Amino acid sequence: MNRAPVAVVIGAGDATGSAVARRFAREGFTLCVTRRTVEKLEALVSDIEAAGGVVKPFGCDARVEQEMVELFAHIEKDIGPIEVVVFNIGANVHFSILDTTERVYRKVWEMGALAGFLTGREAAKVMIPRKRGTIIFTGATASLRGSKGFSAFASAKFALRALAQSMARELGPKGIHVAHPIIDGAIDTDFIRDNFPERYELKDQDGILNPEHIAEQYWQLHCQPRDSWTHELDLRPWMETF
């Protein structure tokens, strides 16, 4: 078995999740990365391996309890000890409250909140006996305020923030660092480029967040000494209002 420390990224999307995975891989971690469809991880796996890193891709629905239980058990048994877990599933949708169906609301909650709970619980199970570890939940502007048209997304992100706070208070005294970075601004993604071109034009002015810079803050959170742990920090471009 590879006994290098393991970092798990649940929701290793093309922007922040992939950047976080690459950042930890550069430090010698074995990366276990998940998306619902494993084929979508091929580019990330190629990037990490080309740079000399070790990565294990998994197709996994983080909303399904048994899949998450089996994922963490398999990693611990067959890959290595989990030191870092990052929950980074996005569930951003925009609907008028009148157009928000029960199915939409439930699905967004499952992706943004329930999956976060399952991830955090399984991470805690393996970290508590070792009395160390880092659990990071990616937050958003919607973690702090519910804007027009974002009732489902904000509800899920509020719930995830509350989960992170509760876990931090319970697990901090057990040696486990729980953090909740709030990404308060547009990120350099294809979604922003294609749907918000005026905002994307601000990229050349450092007006949208660079995923690699977000990932650096995640790495620094993991490196903090336990006498100076950050639970919550907000990251936004210099021109973003708040």
Written account of the structure:
With 242 residues, the protein is an alpha/beta fold. It has one domain: 3-Layer(aba) Sandwich (Rossmann fold), CATH 3.40.50.720. It contains eight helices and eight strands, in the order E-H-E-H-E-H-E-H-E-E-H-E-H-H-H-E. Strand 4, helix 4 and strand 5 form a beta-alpha-beta unit. The protein is globular, with a radius of gyration of 17 Å. InterPro entries: NAD(P)-bd_dom_sf (IPR036291), SDR_fam (IPR002347). Pfam families: adh_short. This is Short-chain dehydrogenase.
Task: Note the main attributes of this structure.
SDR_fam, eight-stranded parallel β-sheet, NAD(P)-bd_dom_sf, 242 residues, Rossmann fold, globular, Short-chain dehydrogenase
Any chance you could write out the topology, listing elements then pairs?
Blueprint: E1 6-10, H1 16-26, E2 30-35, H2 42-50, E3 54-59, H3 65-78, E4 82-87, H4 102-127, E5 133-137, E6 139-140, H5 151-171, E7 176-183, H6 190-195, H7 197-200, H8 211-223, E8 232-235
Parallel strand pairs: 1-2, 1-4, 2-3, 4-5, 5-7, 6-7, 7-8
Helix pairs in contact: 1-8, 3-4, 4-5
Q: What is the alpha-carbon Rg in Å?
A: 17 Å
Name the CATH superfamily classification: NAD(P)-binding Rossmann-like Domain
Structural class: alpha/beta
Low-confidence stretches: none
InterPro entries: NAD(P)-bd_dom_sf, SDR_fam
Protein name: Short-chain dehydrogenase
Organism: Psychrobacter nivimaris
Concise description?
The chain has 242 residues and is of the alpha/beta class. The chain has one domain: Rossmann fold, CATH 3.40.50.720. The protein is 43% helix and 17% strand.
